[in-house]
Amino acid sequence: MLLSLHVKNLALIEEEEVTFTDGLNILTGETGAGKSIIIGSVNLALGAKADKAIIRTGADYALIEMTFLADNETQIAKLKEMDLPIEEDGTILIKRKILPGRSACSVCGESVTLRQLREIAELLIDIYGQRENQKLLRREAQLLTVDEYAGEEAERLKASVAQRYKKWRALTSEWEKDDLDDAARKREVDLLSYELREIEEAAIRDGEDEELENRYRLLENFRKISEAAGQAGYRTGGGEGSAEEAIDRASRELSSVYGVDPALDALADQLSEVGDLLSDFNRALNEYIRDLTFDPAEFEQIQDRLNLINHLKDKYGRTIADIEKARAEREERLSFLEDYENGRRKLKKDIAAEYKALLDLCEALSAVRKNAAARFASGLREALLDLNFPQVEFESRFESGEAHLSANGYDKLVFYISMNPGESPRPLEQIASGGELSRIMLGMKTVFAGKDEIHTFIFDEIDTGISGMTAWKVAEKMGRLATNHQILCITHLPQIASMQDSHYSIAKESIDGRTMTHIRRLSEEESDCEVARLLGADTITDAALINARDMKRRALSAKGGEG
Q1: Edge-to-edge, what's the strand order for the sheet holding 486-490?
Q2: What is the per-residue pLDDT across 323-365, written as a single tens digit (0 to 9) for each?
Q3: Could you tell me which of 130, 171, 186, 341 has the fewest CB atoms within 10 Å of its CB?
Q4: Strands 486-490 and 456-460
Q5: b vs e for 449-464, b when ≥16 Cβ sit within 10 Å of the residue's Cβ?
Q6: pTM for this predicted structure
Q7: CA pair distance 509, 503, nearest whole angstrom
Q8: What are phi and psi of 507, to 5 degrees?
Q9: How far is 424 from 87, CA to CA, in rounded Å?
């Protein structure tokens, strides 16, 4: 549920904050008042593409904040899977700050990417407008609608189909790649045999390259190491003038007064320890110098061995592990080619088994879809009759079979509809007008109402192309839908506005040469006046108010309240 919307420095909005209620929230206003800006701000907060031009002139940034209340355990569980720190009371604060050239998004105080923001939005709110209605005309969207209606079983089968399809395609690609004649097969066998011998004859040990490189560096720098070690030995323990001699003399001087002053005794002990450490160092350094040798033959041997290893790395991989992997792959490939006919028969058998398993899954998925489509069509027919279609036929026509096989199954689906007596059903995209599409979308949302995990819907221009009795039917349907959902609806029709649980006015005014859009919740009396305006009253007379209040009483009665 959407609790509140706060907008600052966005287009014509300087700063506005509005709280929403459950049920049907109606937004009305004169043409050009800025209703599209309100819906636009919601879209921006939920991850829509932003342009710096939307920042209010003179401002450094635009800010949109939305506060939601998670409505069910499924929502909360999915949000927690995203590692979002939801408040204990279930509130979720979404914030987007838009600056020239970039934007910053956060959810519950934690920074998120635009992609993450869009994923979160899909769990919290559905927004329907003319663009969403047009999506309904695309046939792939029609199949997806049936899949969503079918629910978890369809999703599980679709995942299995996609996995099987991927495996089957990999096997068929392997079959096509290995369709070799005798000459090509012999050439590949000769090459693989040569490469295997090259790797096996090298007999490289794991870690050998590092050992050789360390030894090579030592021998390559032998003269420099030998001179440095000799100089260090001379200066620390080489006799007269060395560090060891100097420390020994200093130690003897301090020992002559040992026992006179405890503080000086401690220093003498420290110096004695230093002398012992230096003596140990010199012994170890002398042993290192004695063991330091240079063998030209060994140096050449190491060079040759490293050249061989690096040659194999250039051909088969950057590491010894890569070379070993290349050896195993070539061994497996050679084994296959040497027993080519049996390997091909096995591969063909595997492909046939995968294909059969794939078709079985497609058949199961198709059955689930067709069952769901029949139930969906039945529910939608009833919903459309309630929306003032005098007669309606609606059906989902499938084309199923191997010719349509893909990672999505083997079904093609088209929605067929007839909305007038005597007319045969035709594809939805061929006959539906804008107003009819709006009603069909509302009908679909009604059919989905019991299945939706989303509680909040926004309807923008749901009243396009309708009036009179049809408008009243749409209002009744929306009122019933709002008994279990939160709906925000922008409308120009008094019939829909009269069905409100909360009524908001969007208005534009000019102050000191600047135009600003405001939104505020109307009192009951102000709502009466707004409905009267929508009824066409130039001047809000007593008669106009009586008509508005009568319409609102009828709306309340239709929702099951007291007339």
Answers
A1: 125-128, 456-460, 486-490, 24-28, 502-511, 514-521
A2: 999 999 999 889 888 888 888 889 999 999 999 999 999 999 9
A3: 341
A4: parallel
A5: beeeebbbbbbbbbbb
A6: 0.63
A7: 20
A8: -140, 160
A9: 54
Residue partners of 313: CB distance under 8 A and separation at least 6: 319, 320, 322, 323
Question: Token digits for 344?
Answer: 């091909």
Q: Report residue 563's pLDDT band, with 50, 70 and 90 as the boundaries.
A: very low
Six token digits for residue 471? 């408008």
User: 282 Cβ partners below 8 Å, 6+ apart?
Assistant: 233, 236, 237, 244
Q: Which residue has the tokens 């309708």?
A: 466
> CA–CA separation, 378 vs 146, rounded Å?
13
Alpha-carbon distance 465 to 354, whole Å? 51
Helical ranges in 178-293 per DSSP H: 182-202, 208-220, 222-237, 243-255, 262-291
Which amino acid belongs to residue 545? L
Lowest mean pLDDT among 134-138, 196-200, 373-377: 134-138
Q: Are 417 and 394 in contact (CB under 8 A)?
A: yes
Instruction: Let me know: does 497 contact 534? Beta carbons within 8 Å.
Output: yes
Q: How buried is 124 (Cβ within 10 angstroms: 0-12 exposed, 13-18 middle, 19+ buried)?
A: buried
H-run or E-run covering 472: helix 468-481
CA 436 to chain centre: 34
* Residues counted in the chain: 563
Q: What's the rounded Cα separation, in Å, for the pair 257 and 264? A: 9
Among residues 338, 492, 403, 404, which one has the least CA distance to residue 143? 404
Distance separating alpha carbons of residues 304 and 517, to the nearest angstrom: 80
Sequence-ordered alpha helix ranges (H) in 92-181: 114-124, 130-135, 139-150, 152-177
Residue with tokens 């970039």: 102
Phi-psi category of 186—alpha, beta or left, where left has phi over 0 and alpha has psi -120 to 50? alpha
- In tens, the pLDDT along 294-329 reads 889 999 999 999 999 999 999 999 999 999 999 999
Strand 2-10 with 13-19, pairing: antiparallel
Residue 452 is predicted with a pLDDT of: 62
Q: Reduce the DSSP state of residue 19 to 3 states and report it.
A: strand
Query: Distance between CA atoms of 442 and 448, rounded to whole angstroms?
Result: 10
Residues with Cβ within 8 Å of 297's Cβ and at least 6 positions away in sequence, in order, are: none
Q: What is the pLDDT of residues 7-58, one digit of tens each?
A: 999 888 888 899 999 999 999 888 777 777 888 888 888 888 888 888 888 8
Question: Following DSSP, what letter does each residue of 292-361 receive, concatenated?
Answer: ----HHHHHHHHHHHHHHHHHHHHH-SSHHHHHHHHHHHHHHHHHHHTHHHHHHHHHHHHHHHHHHHHHH
Alpha-carbon gap, residue 117 to 48, rounded angstroms: 9
SS (H, E, C) 356-402: HHHHHHHHHHHHHHHHHHHHHHHHHHHHHHHCCCCCCEEEEEEEECH
Sign of CA pseudo-dihedral 52, 55, 57, 61: negative
Burial 153-174 (b: 16+ CB within 10 A, else e): ebeebbebbeebbeebeebeee
DSSP SS3 for 436: helix
- At residue 192, φ and ψ (nearest 5 deg) are -65, -40
DSSP reduced 3-state for 485: coil
